[in-house]
């Protein structure tokens, strides 16, 4: 992997850095292609494509730091961006919230390429369209269905990250996100079935996906959406819940992922995405959940949506336990956030998670792949252990307070569980709880067979705002005594 | 005046806006590449922005972003595809990028079926675009404004973002239509934190820095901190009288905007949370009238070159106004286009003022909750317009018309047909204009103009 202008851009960065007396400088060069194809009721919507190129320069100088981003990917672009970044570094050094002279200045060398069998981009446009049409071919269309949308989102991204001291990281990923949404309406009741927030997004190629499986999903979701329009409302009360992996994705994301972000704990997000009920002194001792709860940060899972070799500040990716046996061990914080925490008197660990959405936004702490490790229970045994409760799945609505504590989720479907047996379908189940106590009510974790590797491209955070990909693998999980309502 | 005033010369030069020049050059390039029989449209989005993120009174990240994007739509024999291409500003490189973008669209177009719902852009009828006038003489730079702001907030725990620069939107068509909108955009969106989750949320936006206004806002926030230092009040779950600040009312109505409330397409697909209002099955209070008004910061045109109406009725005296209809939905659904953008959401949401003077609002509330801000709204029952979310920032418990304590963060879950229907007692005379601080991909130009709302009950659940 290389960029045709790499030598020229690297030389510009090095000479500018030396001339300015910068302690450290980095250059991110990015090129991204994107294609979104959508069939609505079998008819193709106008395709939506993009071609994006740009660069971002960071300069650490005199205790300050600044960045600049431009679409001009040339030596001149690097020079202009460097001067602007240097200007901000100088201007803000007296007012900096952290000392850039004490910040990490890594110079890693490495490459990463995502697995993708049968690249989307290697097929002709007509073949790509034919692939999508095959998913929707022969889809049932009962009169209750008011929307059937089948789509594919493909993204190809190349990032080259260089440092003033010879660091070089080249990463190339291909993401493929098949998606299905069905809306059915009958007698004033509207119900939806879908993959939930593009939850099947992966680093993948066409041969990693099963056309037959996705076609079956279309038919299944049509059938379920229609069935739910005639289903009774969800029962209300305190009961046990078995949560499927599609809903676990959001439960994990909102009430473990976000609260563990170190920049949030340090206070950076208090004006926008919020703070955290987690504090620095909790790491190493706080019982976040029951002893069945094991959560890893793992950008090394082949094919999971947010896998990479290095984060966007040069941190080398590795698998780390954030929570083990229910005990909180380390936050989601890149090396800079860890240094800031140390400067504040807390030597917490961290992970390589400083990421940018795109060349026009600076790195901040993000989730990447955040996974719940499988336990030892089959799905049948999780259900079998419930006297009165619900199996709920696929996120429909999500809301959580700014400390990431009081949450409420809505799901697309529910199945009644009575005396350990799965019974009828119910529509629109909602449940609410408090993060700090909810995970302690976890008393069953599904085995590897119940685990699904999912992901979504829609995680928002930061000022200026950034939306980024995250991967979440989770098994089905059982929680005791949850407040459920229609 | 500030720590930065002597260091900020280098931050000034971008104010010599080059956006229109770049747009005109891209337009000429694209039109020169057009082939016979091809329909072309382009929507231009560019900005030069300084972003300074600050926390605990110090600078966390500071930088400059320059970005130029052209959304090209190519139509060949009734088949259309669109592509967003990022441009560099360098003529030769932009020619390469635009040629590559058109090649990609041309390779795709023959594989597409004819699209029966295509709409052409309007004919050429616009005045020639004019560049942004230079900034007022003596206006502080972003760096100077930052220095003053942080100086004024000394001793306070301030966190947020300062954004400053120029934002432009443009439209071009192969038939010769050109539209242009460009504005200087200065903004600070911040919180003054008392402790933990207690804070005063503040915002200021304008086309030129107004340091006196920033000082005034900081002083007002400083004065509110004492109330937040008191022990928190945690009411039992249940319905409580509530005074929703203009920001909180904008958040509630924003739930409709964000989830297709007024979208003709969403209504057709039964996804709109306002389906019952549109069908006449439910109404809001006669006090409530809502419009999507032209003006504000948003451009007067959408991405296909169509003009937005001067004032589009969304809710009229509590009843359904009219849907927002994009040109494509108009063709698909057999409706008249309202010049709405593709996602059919209001750009400049305006609520008519009421009769309650703001100075009397707390007294009218009596005992209940003053909701300064809401957070993370989502639908617990979309078809019934039931919304959940939590309180945030300086939400206060009020007794006898006087704030007595900050409210512990509370979750609510309620039906907006009720909250803004029979339970809506009054809207205030005064309204707050708020420019969106959203910067996903690019700086937002949407805004809201809303009064405060006095409600007989808001149902808190947790």
Mind explaining what this structure looks like?
The complex is a heterodimer of chains A (486) and B (462). The mean pLDDT of chain A is 97. Chain A has nine helices and 24 strands. In chain A, strands 1, 2, 3, 4, 5, 6, 7, 8 and 9 form a nine-stranded mixed beta sheet that branches. In chain A, strands 10-17-18-20-24 form a five-stranded mixed barrel. Chain A is α+β, with helices and mostly antiparallel strands and 486 residues long. In chain A, strand 14 and strand 15 (364-365) form a beta hairpin. By secondary structure, chain B is α+β, with helices and mostly antiparallel strands. Helices cover 22% and strands 37% of the residues of chain B. Chain B contains ten helices and 19 strands. Chain B has helices at 19-33, 91-108, 142-152, 211-228, 246-258, 264-268, 275-279, 327-333, 361-365, 416-419; strands at residues 38-55, 58-76, 79-87, 157-173, 178-195, 198-206, 238-244, 290-293, 311-316, 319-320, 348-351, 368-371, 373-381, 386-392, 396-399, 402-406, 411-415, 424-435, 447-460. In chain B, strand 1 and strand 2 form a beta hairpin. The longest helix of chain B has 18 residues, at 91-108. Chain B is globular. At the A-B interface, strand 2, strand 3, strand 4, helix 2 and helix 3 of A face strand 1, strand 2, strand 3, helix 2 and helix 3 of B.
Report the average pLDDT across residues of chain B: 93
Q: SSE string of chain B, helix = H, strand = E?
A: HEEEHHEEEHEHHHEEEHEHEEEEEEHEE
**Radius of gyration of chain A from the CA trace?**
24 Å
Largest sheet of chain A: 9 strands, mixed
Tally of contiguous helical segments of chain B: 10
Beta-strand content of chain A: 35-45%
Question: Number of DSSP strands of chain B?
Answer: 19
Q: What is the subunit arrangement here? A: heterodimer
Major beta-sheet overview of chain B? 10 strands, mixed
Shape type of chain B: globular
Number of separate helices of chain A: 9
What percentage of residues of chain A falls in helices of 4 or more residues? 10-25%
Low-confidence stretches of chain B: 1-16
Number of strands of chain A: 24
- What would you call the structural class of chain A? alpha+beta
Q: Determine the strand fraction of chain B and express it as a percent band.
A: 35-45%
């Amino acid at each position: 992997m290389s960029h045709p202008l790499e030598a020229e851009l690297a030389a510009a960065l090095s000479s500018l850095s030396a001339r300015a007396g910068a302690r450290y400088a980095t250059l991110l060069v990015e090129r991204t292609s994107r294609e979104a194809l959508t069939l609505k009721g079998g008819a193709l919507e106008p395709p939506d494509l993009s071609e994006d190129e740009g660069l971002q320069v960071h300069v650490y100088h005199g205790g300050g730091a600044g960045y600049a981003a431009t679409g001009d990917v040339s030596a001149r672009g690097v020079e202009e961006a460097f001067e602007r970044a240097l200007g901000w570094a100088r201007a803000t050094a007296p007012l900096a919230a952290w000392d850039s002279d004490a910040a990490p200045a890594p110079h890693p060398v490495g490459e990463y390429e995502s697995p993708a069998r049968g690249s989307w981009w290697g097929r002709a446009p007509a073949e790509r369209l034919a692939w999508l049409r095959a998913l929707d071919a022969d889809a049932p269309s009962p009169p209750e269905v008011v929307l059937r949308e089948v789509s594919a989102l493909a993204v190809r991204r190349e990032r080259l990250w260089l440092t003033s001291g010879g660091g070089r990281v080249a990463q190339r990923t291909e993401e493929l996100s098949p998606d299905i949404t069905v809306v059915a309406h009958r007698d004033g009741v509207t119900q939806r079935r879908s993959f939930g927030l593009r939850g099947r997004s992966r680093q993948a190629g066409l041969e990693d996906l099963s056309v037959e499986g996705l076609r079956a999903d279309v038919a299944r979701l049509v059938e379920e959406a229609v069935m739910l329009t005639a289903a009774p409302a969800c029962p209300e009360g305190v009961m046990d819940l078995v949560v499927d992996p599609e809903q676990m994705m959001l439960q994990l994301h909102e009430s473990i992922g976000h609260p563990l972000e170190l920049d949030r704990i340090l206070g950076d997000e208090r004006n926008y995405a919020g703070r955290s009920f987690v504090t620095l002194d909790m790491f190493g001792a706080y019982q976040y959940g029951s002893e069945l709860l094991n959560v890893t940060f793992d950008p090394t899972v082949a094919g999971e949506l947010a896998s990479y070799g290095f984060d966007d500040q040069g941190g080398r990716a590795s698998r780390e336990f954030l929570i083990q046996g229910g005990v909180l061990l380390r936050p989601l914080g890149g090396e800079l956030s860890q240094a800031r925490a140390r400067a504040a008197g807390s030597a917490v660990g961290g992970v390589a998670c400083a990421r940018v959405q795109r060349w026009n936004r600076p790195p901040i702490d993000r989730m990447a792949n955040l996974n719940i490790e499988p336990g030892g229970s089959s799905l049948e045994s999780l259900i079998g252990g419930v006297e009165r409760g619900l199996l709920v799945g696929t996120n429909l609505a999500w809301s959580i307070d700014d400390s990431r504590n009081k949450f409420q989720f809505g799901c697309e479907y529910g199945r009644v569980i009575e005396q350990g047996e799965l019974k009828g379908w119910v529509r629109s189940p909602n449940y609410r709880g408090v993060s700090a106590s909810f995970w302690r009510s976890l008393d069953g974790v599904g085995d590897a067979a119940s685990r699904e590797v999912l992901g979504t491209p829609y995680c928002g955070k930061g000022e200026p705002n950034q939306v980024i990909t995250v991967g979440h693998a989770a098994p089905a999980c059982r929680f005791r005594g949850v407040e459920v309502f229609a | 005046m500030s720590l930065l005033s002597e260091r900020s010369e280098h931050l000034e030069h971008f104010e010599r806006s080059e956006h229109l020049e770049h747009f005109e050059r891209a337009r000429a390039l694209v039109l020169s590449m057009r082939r016979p029989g091809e329909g072309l449209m382009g929507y231009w989005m560019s900005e030069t922005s300084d972003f300074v993120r600050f926390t605990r009174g110090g600078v966390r990240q500071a930088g400059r972003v320059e970005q130029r994007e052209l959304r090209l739509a190519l139509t060949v024999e009734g088949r259309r595809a669109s592509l967003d291409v990022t441009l560099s500003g360098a003529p030769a490189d932009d020619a390469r990028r635009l040629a590559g973008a058109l090649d990609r669209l041309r390779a795709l177009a023959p594989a597409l079926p004819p699209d029966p719902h295509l709409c052409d852009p309007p004919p050429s009828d616009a005045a020639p675009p004019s560049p942004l006038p230079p900034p007022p003489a003596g206006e502080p730079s972003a760096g100077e404004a930052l220095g003053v702001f942080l100086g004024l907030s000394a001793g306070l725990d301030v966190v947020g973002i300062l954004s400053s620069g120029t934002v432009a939107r443009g439209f071009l068509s192969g038939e010769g239509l050109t539209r242009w909108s460009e504005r200087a955009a200065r903004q600070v969106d911040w919180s003054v934190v008392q402790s933990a989750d207690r804070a005063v949320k503040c915002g200021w936006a304008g086309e030129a820095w107004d340091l006196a206004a920033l000082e005034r806002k900081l002083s007002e926030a400083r004065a509110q901190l004492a109330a937040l230092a008191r022990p928190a009040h945690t009411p039992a779950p249940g319905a409580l009288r509530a005074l929703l600040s203009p920001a909180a009312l904008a958040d509630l109505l924003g739930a409709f905007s964000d989830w297709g409330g007024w979208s003709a397409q969403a209504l057709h697909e039964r996804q709109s949370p306002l389906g019952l209002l549109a069908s006449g099955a439910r109404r809001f209070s006669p006090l409530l009238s809502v419009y999507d008004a032209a003006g504000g910061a948003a451009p007067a045109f959408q991405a296909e070159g169509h003009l937005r109406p001067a004032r589009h009725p969304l809710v009229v005296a509590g009843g359904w106004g009219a849907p927002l209809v994009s040109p494509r939905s108009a063709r698909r659904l057999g409706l008249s286009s309202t010049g709405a953008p593709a996602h059919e959401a209001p750009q400049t949401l305006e609520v008519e003022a009421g009769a309650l003077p703001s100075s009397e609002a707390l007294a009218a509330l009596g005992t209940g909750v003053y909701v300064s801000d809401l957070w993370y709204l989502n639908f617990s029952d979309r078809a019934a317009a039931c919304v959940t979310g939590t309180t945030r920032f300086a939400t206060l418990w009020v007794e006898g018309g006087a704030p007595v304590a900050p409210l512990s963060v509370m979750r609510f879950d309620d039906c907006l047909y009720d909250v803004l229907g029979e339970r809506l007692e009054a809207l205030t005379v005064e309204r707050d204009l708020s420019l969106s601080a959203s910067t996903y991909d690019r700086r937002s130009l949407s805004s809201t103009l809303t009064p405060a709302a006095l409600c007989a009950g808001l149902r808190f659940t947790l």
